[in-house]
Design a protein that fits this description.
seven-stranded antiparallel sheet, 271 residues, 5 helices, alpha+beta
Length: 271
């Protein structure tokens, strides 16, 4: 799909604006080191431990591993999911046009195995987002491929996002969606982190196009009379497999939950 093929007014957004928005989101969505690279073991002799009340308590100092349930709720590098202390909704505080809907908060769960990791972010009603309620979704026997799903969470985190419906708000929403999907990913699980926003075909290599080469790679927003919105922008994946990607998000009226298309449209020409 190429937006220029549609005979309706199109608003172009500068690549610089897109890059500044994306950089802001990345600068805010940073996890603390204790969650990115948590200790893989349990308690150590260097940690604070309770002073024994009497001689019989001394034996307990050598059995500080704790219950499996408690360990699964703390940051760990064993693949067990835990709740992040970060608030992803803070990424919108200094950006115009978008906000988290009143009554909701964004909550992220993380899983870490050595230098690899994933995260999943949910929009949860504030009335169901106490620590105790969120911890009920944690299962000590779960692994990195089975993320927790807290009770009352919306099916799509973007359903909890509201805004002023300006073209810029949809640009921010499209980048926010991808940054939240990437939030918590490390090592081999990173996806969006390998992409760089572009508005022209990179000239360092020759490209083999999978279809018709687009004539204009600048970011664009199209708002229909019925308030549907389409945004198109492009990126280049800079690590193998290197490719130029087209991103198209289609927003229904009164929503910031988009139907998204992310597809590779060109790959380096083999010599």
């Amino acid at each position: 799909m190429e937006l220029l093929s549609i005979a309706m007014p199109i608003q172009k957004i500068s690549l610089e604006a897109l890059q500044k928005i994306n950089q802001h989101l990345k600068s805010v969505l940073i996890l603390p080191e204790s969650e990115n690279h948590p200790r893989s073991s349990g308690s150590s002799l260097d940690e604070d431990v309770p002073e024994p009340g009497f001689l019989g308590d001394l034996g307990s100092l050598f059995n500080l591993g704790g219950s499996e349930e408690l360990e699964s709720q703390a940051p760990n590098a064993k693949g067990q999911w835990f709740i992040s202390s970060m608030n992803p909704g803070a990424a919108l505080m200094k950006l115009p046009g978008l906000e988290v809907r009143p009554g909701f908060r964004l909550v992220t769960y993380l899983s870490r195995v050595a230098t690899d990791g994933v995260g999943i972010t949910w929009a949860v009603a504030e009335t169901m987002s106490t620590t105790a309620q969120l911890e009920r979704a944690l299962n000590p026997k779960s692994h990195i491929q089975t993320p927790p799903h807290p009770a009352g969470a919306l099916a799509d985190v973007m359903e909890a996002i509201d805004g002023d419906r300006t073209p810029l708000s949809f640009v921010i929403a499209s980048l926010l969606k991808r940054e939240i999907q990437e939030f918590g990913r490390m090592g081999k699980y990173r996806i969006w982190a390998h992409h760089r926003l572009i508005d022209a075909v990179p000239s360092q290599v020759k490209w083999e196009w999978r279809g018709k080469e687009p004539q204009d790679l600048s970011p664009k927003v199209l708002i229909y009379p019925d308030q549907k919105v389409v945004i198109e922008f492009f990126s280049c994946r800079v690590t193998a497999p290197v490719a130029i990607f087209q991103h198209v998000d289609q927003y229904p009226p009164n929503q910031y939950k988009a139907a998204s298309l992310d597809r590779a449209i060109a790959t380096p020409l083999r010599s």
